[in-house]
Amino acid sequence: MTKGQLEAEISKELTQWEKDFLGRGPVMVKTDILRDMVIVVLKGLLTPAEHKLSETTEGLLSIKRIRADLVEAGREKLGEIIKEQTGEEVIIFHSDISTKTGERIMVFKLSADLEQKITS
Questions:
Q1: Mean pLDDT for the stretch of residues 27-33
Q2: Could you tell me the pLDDT band of residue 119, with boundaries at 50, 70 and 90?
Q3: Facing residues of 92 across strands?
Q4: What is the pLDDT of residues 101-114, one digit of tens each?
Q5: Nearest-CA neighbor of 118 among 12, 38, 15?
Q6: Is residue 75 within 8 Å of residue 90, measured between CB atoms?
Q7: Are 102 and 51 in contact (CB under 8 A)?
Q8: Could you give the C-alpha distances from 20 to 13, 46, 62, 98, in angstroms and in order?
Q9: Could you tell me which of 88, 92, 68 has the C-alpha nearest to residue 10?
Q10: Domain Na+-translocating membrane potential-generating system MpsC, which positions (predicted)?
């Protein structure tokens, strides 16, 4: 499998995870493999109500906290998806959502340099 094919497959699997676990999928997903990291940007995640709520500081913080808790609750499955697709363990996971743009970024740090393995 090429790097591009693997990135596309990871995007597809994470989109499905969003739909199955959170009940709603992103409008667009882009995955990039860089050294020992898988970086995923998901766009179009916030509902119209969340966009409205994010107009206040309290609402913005509430959305970020709830969304972070939801992703953390599914953290184990996310690690399994990445391991199944890449063959590498996830050793660190970071995620944040922008209430301004409705984008989430996920960074999976792997146990080995996946990019080097793929391109070798």
A1: 97
A2: confident
A3: 109
A4: 999 999 999 999 99
A5: 38
A6: no
A7: yes
A8: 10, 16, 23, 22
A9: 88
A10: 2-111
Chain Cα centroid distance, residue 23:
15
Domain chopping of the chain, boundaries: 3-111
Over its C-alpha atoms, the chain yields an Rg (Å, rounded) of 15
Q: What is the pLDDT of residue 37?
A: 98
Query: Sheet of 104-110: strands edge to edge?
Result: 28-34, 37-43, 104-110, 90-97
Task: Name 93's bridge partners.
Answer: 108
Structure token digits, residue 5: 């094919």
Q: How many CB atoms lie within 10 A of CB 98?
A: 15
- List, in sequence order, every residue forming a beta bridge with 31; answer none if it has no partner: 40
Round to whole Å and give the CA distance between 100 and 52: 11
Contact 82, 108 (CB under 8 A): yes
Answer whether 0.70 is exceeded by the pTM.
yes
- What is the distance between the alpha carbons of residues 85 and 91, in angstroms, rounded to a whole number? 15
For the record, the structure tokens of 98 come out as 């922008």
